[in-house]
Amino acid sequence: MFSKPKNPLYTSVTRRKFLELGGGAATALGVGSMAVGLNTVIMKSPVQAASSDDAKWKQYAGSKLVFLSENTPPTIALKEKLKPFYDKTGITVEIITDDLPVVSQKMGIDLRAGKADFILEYVQDKPIGAPYAEYFLDLNKYINDSSLPQDPEGYGKDAWFDNYLDISCYYYDRDHLRALPYDSAVACMFYRQDLFEQYTKEFEKEFGYRMEYTKDSTWKNVHDFASFFTKMRKGGKAVPYGYAQHQGNFAWTTQLDIQRHLFSHGRWTDFNVDDKIGSKTPGPTNWGDPTSVFQMQKFKELADVSHPDNLANGTLELNTVYQAGEIAMQVQYNEFAASVEDPKTSKAAGGKTAYAPCPKGEASWIKNGGQAVNGCNAGIAGIGINANGSEDMRRAGYLFSIWVTSTETQFDQLKGTGGTPTRKAVLQKPEVKAAQQRPTSMPNALTFDAVYNYGIKDPHFVLGPKLPEANEYYNIIAAETQKCLSNKQSAAEACKAIKKRVDNLNGI
Amino acid sequence: MVTAVTEVKAKSPTLVSKLDDVDLKARTLDFTPSVMNSVQKKYFYLWLILPAVVVLAAISLYPFFWLIWMSLNDVGINTSSAFVGLKNFTRLLGDDKFWNGWQILLTYSALCLVFEIIIGVFIAVVINGTRFENILVTIFLMPMMMAPAIAGLIWYFLFNSTFGWYHWFLHSIGILGDTSIIGSTDTALFGLVIVDIWQWTPLITLITLAGMKRVPRDQLEANMVDGANAFSNFIQITLPNIYPFLLIGIMLRFMDNFRFIDVILALTGGGPADSTNILPVYLFEVSFRYFKLGRGAAIALTLLVVTIILGKILVRVFEGPASKRIDVGN
């Protein structure tokens, strides 16, 4: 069918040669696709200060960035809403999500190895920000760079909710801005208003006051409510347990759980340092003092009237228990409101749940002469840029950082699967104001009054401790507290053990 | 084989010289190119094994010596490190979690081994030679095929007190209260042991079954003629014969329990209150949660040394009786 010329210009390809070529091509393709698939790729078009805003946004068109984040509702929502960023910049962003401990491990390996496989990092305030702070770029450098676009609302203290810059962006000093506030989970009280109304008379007969939860409700009231429900449950009545704690295997939230209790009673903190900035040399801990021992005992008494599987319930499991209708109250992070209000998965949906600030300290339980406050804490993450990256990688990363923390993007996320805004301007939007009342299409907005107008403000907000050894610190608190709750040691022994181990950790 | 060759030589004398020639070449094994001089020939084999040595060094020896170096240095999240001598080791002496980790590891390993051997051998004895042996073995092996991390997550859901089917069942028949098996410091370790038994007993069953196929039938029959019942037959004949096989199973499971942490991380994370924080989990925590790589290296080295010593002891304990019993069997 085909004729071969007598003196062809081409030479025939031998089988060996063919295999060599094929092998070489496959190797090159494999290596190339791995490089393109896994890592940040940078394409560049130079711009000047006088260039148009559009040109500044598009100066890295064709590039690819990788963002490593915890699998939080805002990030999950963001994954579906990256097209506007691509349209604006021509940059593709790959978001890799995982549980926070895994994110922390992957990030630690990347940062310590001097690599930048993940140029954009989820800087969760204490578990990630505190130990790795110096690996994140100081963003002050780009905030004043006229060849980069900037957010018109700026990045000052007033642009964000109270304390947010301190919580997620400054570590050990206020000279270096290590991140921009990206998402937030602030603790507040979720409680079954329907059950409170149903049983208030019976409760009043036993305890002498109405079963109502307000911002003035104290930890003692919570103990009363919890014991009332639990007693009924153990008596065979089909009611939930009263309360449950975050005492599962996620050490950080376990520490936060008892921290709220302690701070409420006289604004007790772990160390005598500026709690919002943290310290690399925090000195001796306050654990073991009379306040900590007394509050540990009260915390234990609350555990005794709480859900019996307390020690297996981390934050996520606790919310599942609440959704299943197994408890009447939980102090939970406000990002979970969307799941609680979902009638497909939650028995507490449909207007049964009300949201309020965390419980207040009981005046008679305060031992240090301090103030009774509604001790509230949070997990607030910034978006940071890996300082190991090249200058162009960092600049491209900055474009994403300011886009994702802009008011419009956060508003868009809030309309999705449960955003948690960090910019104040989001709450000024009429749709968001309206969404704070039922019926609402943005369930997380039901918590905004409790968290943004109350919980995160001083004097209620507690942050720390920000320490380079934060992750080991949480494990110590969690393990010793759990031993106390499971009757393996007394409150005094637990506090003494924490004191000994924490001081040892900090070289005291 | 030797008999066969002798027979061939006897029947066909013409082949003798050729077979002897092959035999001679095979014995001398001189494959060096004939153009090489004696010095080149001397180093020829060294060049041949060099790639294998380099690969071995890269994947095994280099990390080992790096581990030793790290254990003598303060290596943390910062890239700088400082020589601290034996400080990482001496610190372990006063580390309660380190000793607690050993205690729980030994308890956990012992419980897993004992139950897996008893149940695994029992299942093998019951199904050996039955009509459904093949299908049953296939079914029993299924848990073993599962990645330990996935197994951990599955059991996490099964044990959960809110939606876990196993918890619901055990709660319904009154064995468990409202507290899940992994939610109590008293029972969490047993939860892990149950998962390990579920996943790895089939390995013991498989190894035992392989051993049982090698038990000489004539010995069994002779013993029965002497009046032994099935149980006596198992104790007197089968068990001594499967002993070397069981030793392999015990060694494998012993080493696995010192290495595998996937299930524990997925199921309890070492809690509650460190009640399931076996030493390998603590090692992972120190190295990759706290990024105290020097301290982690010291823990890893102690784990390595103790594992080798315990492994040797285990082999000594089991090897003696095993060899004696094989002699009896033969």
> Mean pLDDT of chain A, rounded to whole units?
91
- Helix- and strand-based class of chain A? alpha/beta
Terminus-to-terminus distance of chain B: 22 Å
Helix content percent band of chain A:
40-55%
Quaternary structure classification:
heterodimer
Count the E strands of chain A: 8
What can you tell me about this protein's structure?
The complex is a heterodimer of chains A (508) and B (330). Chain A is α/β, with parallel strands linked by helices and 508 residues long. Chain A has helices at residues 15-38, 53-57, 73-79, 83-89, 100-112, 125-132, 140-143, 164-168, 193-207, 219-234, 251-264, 290-304, 315-323, 337-340, 391-404, 407-415, 424-427, 430-435, 448-455, 470-485, 491-505, and strands spanning 64-70, 92-98, 120-124, 180-192, 241-244, 327-333, 353-356, 378-385. In chain A, strands 1, 2, 3, 4, 5, 6, 7 and 8 form an eight-stranded mixed β-sheet that branches. In chain A, α11 packs across α20 and α20 packs antiparallel against α21. The N and C termini of chain A lie far apart (89 Å). Helices cover 74% and strands 2% of the residues of chain B. The two termini of chain B are 22 Å apart. The chains are: A alpha/beta (508), B mainly alpha (330). The interface between A and B is medium-sized, with 40 and 30 residues.
